[in-house]
TrEMBL record:
Family under the similarity heading: Belongs to the class-II aminoacyl-tRNA synthetase family. Phe-tRNA synthetase alpha subunit type 1 subfamily.
Gene3D superfamilies xrefs: Bira Bifunctional Protein, Domain 2 (3.30.930.10)
Molecular function GO terms recorded: ATP binding; magnesium ion binding; phenylalanine-tRNA ligase activity; tRNA binding
Region of interest: Disordered: 74-96
GO CC entries: cytoplasm
Biased composition (Polar residues): 74-84
Signal sequence, start to end: none
Domain Aminoacyl-transfer RNA synthetases class-II family profile: 114-319
Cofactor(s) listed: Mg(2+)
Organism: Sphingobacterium deserti
Name under which the protein is recorded: Phenylalanine--tRNA ligase alpha subunit
Catalytic activity: tRNA(Phe) + L-phenylalanine + ATP = L-phenylalanyl-tRNA(Phe) + AMP + diphosphate + H(+)
Pfam family, one: Phe_tRNA-synt_N
InterPro entries assigned to the protein according to its UniProt record, in alphabetical order: aa-tRNA-synth_II (IPR006195), aa-tRNA-synth_II/BPL/LPL (IPR045864), Phe-tRNA-synth_IIc_asu (IPR004529), Phe-tRNA_ligase_II_N (IPR004188), Phe_tRNA_ligase_alpha1_bac (IPR022911), Phenylalanyl-tRNA_Synthase (IPR002319), tRNA-bd_arm (IPR010978)
Amino acid sequence: MLQDKIKQYSEEINQFTPTSAADVEQFRLKFLVSKGLVKALFDEFKSVGPEEKRTLGKVLNEFKQLAEQKFSEAQAQFSGTSDTQSKKEGDLTLPGEGFQLGSRHPLSLARKEIVEIFKKLGFVVSEGPEIEDDWHNFSALNFPPEHPARDMQDTFFVEKKEGNDIALRTHTSSVQVRLMEMGQPPFRAIMPGRVYRNEAISARAHCFFHQVEGLYVDENVSFADLKQTLFHFVQELYGEGTKVRFRPSYFPFTEPSAEMDISCTICKGEGCQLCKYSGWVEILGCGMVDPNVLENCGIDSKKYSGFAFGMGIERITNLKYEIRDLRLFSENDVKFLSQFETEII
Ligand code: DAH
């Protein structure tokens, strides 16, 4: 009997307590779609007698309203969690939602800027593999066999091989070796890339980061060329008037070696938290390519000399954008990333 059915389904609807958007959708499919129960009962209604029609018509309409009301309440409860019917039937005259443009990663922006400056000085871009052997990462670069940087602590080893371990490169200096092995001077190259070190991740250290290596080898290249090239680079990158200073240092692959500081880009040398109130921040290591390295790569160190330098792109980026936590670079947080330049192609 139609009346009994209406009663039974009304009870079911009253007891319906959805716990998910999927339940709401099930409800819609059961009662409200064109092959659903509400429609079926209306069809059945057509064939009842005139007497019954009068009483049942009202009951049936109330039943329909009950189902619809229950559905819209349930839908409101879970709105946003599923593509519900009303959304599908949304107002087609409303303007579209548009799409969000991506932005360049700050590290890519910094790398691009560094590369552009050196390109204008005649440097070409060169790249090498991230999985490297001991020869290119260490031995050819004049690291003595017992040098602490070869220690398991710093290096991620991929494979232990007699005399030539395979590891993730710990610096882009390995690309210098690959480049020089391929031919004879002059070499004038800039080598950006990702490097890996076995470090605990914190705001100030990461197990992977990015470097740019530079190499200039020719006849009669001197330390004066090194200083002038890097001085020019800093003026271009951080603006005219940025001061530089060189401090003696040690790297196995350069002799003499130096570290270069620039006047703090944040406080302009006055002293702030970033420069630890010294007015200076270190940005790169550099030096004259050690003759041993040239010879290891088949280059006559009596005829040729050169300079090399290496800098961390994260460091350069932090100074430009005042980013204080290295982890931000690899977390893919859109709120962070969308603050940077949007590239319209
Ligand atoms: N490879 C060094 C590092 O990762 C950086 C470096 C220092 C590169 C001096 C050079 C250089 O080419 O001459 O710390």
